[in-house]
Amino acid sequence: MDEFCGETFWNSSLSWNTTEPDFTECFQKTVLVWIPCVFLWIFTPFEIYHMVENKNRNIPWNYLNISKLAVTLILTSLTCIDALALKKIVAQKLVYNVEISTPIIKIATLILASALVAFNRKHGVRTSGVQFIYWLLQALCGIPEFRSEIANDHYNTSYLAFYPLVLVMLLLNCFVDKPAEYSRCPNLNHPCPEEGAGFLSRMLFQWFDVMAIKGFRRSLKTEDLWSLRHGDFANEVYTKFDTYWQKSVTKSSV
């Protein structure tokens, strides 16, 4: 890895045995960049499966999904600018593999993230856990490099613009998109708020706060209860159950 970066990959004196710990530049450009990228590429098939199985289609363009797409494209452009600037440097000095591979990985991953935003809108996916975690990892893994750039006398202007935009994307992914224009699910008089809750709201069980507060203030009544989620309807559950039941019956009869 030292030859890949042209410098030390890990330095205990810099990262551990010091009053001002920091990671080496090699560690920042490899591990901290690759972790979010690898995560997104690994979990993209699950995201695609979720899109295909989703019963909603065509979320209208709105400020949220347009902002997500625009910011992601800006991040891609900033990374491309860095890559083009590197092309000029190659002719002047020795450039190590990490300087070439890391921008390529980042550009490919950001293009994938842009595509997921567009296809999620088309397939009616209002919130994405995969994308939220990806941007969360980007934000966490980017802290050391952003700190290093701030502490450095020679600022990397592009990254000083890149990292705040990553935080913007993380914030945007905390919100849920508008309902889809077309849905194969029946309309309900009292739908469960979990259906329209964002990923973060589901993880924190925040969508249930309204019911909890109402139950704290007074006794709950039947009309206070929400309808079942579409995925919990008998016709939905039975179809899946019957599929596995028939397989089990077939195996037992052999």
TrEMBL record:
Provide the transmembrane region boundaries: 31-49, 69-91, 103-120, 132-147, 159-176
> What topology does it adopt in the membrane?
Multi-pass membrane protein
Q: Which GO terms describe its cellular component?
A: membrane
Q: Which domain of life is it from?
A: Eukaryota
Question: Where does this one sit in the cell?
Answer: Membrane
Keywords per UniProt: Membrane, Transmembrane, Transmembrane helix
Which residues does the UniProt record annotate as the domain ABC transporter TMD0? 18-159
Kindly give the Pfam families that the UniProt entry links to this protein: TMD0_ABC
InterPro entries found in the cross-reference section: TMD0_ABC
Question: What is the protein named?
Answer: ABC transporter TMD0 domain-containing protein
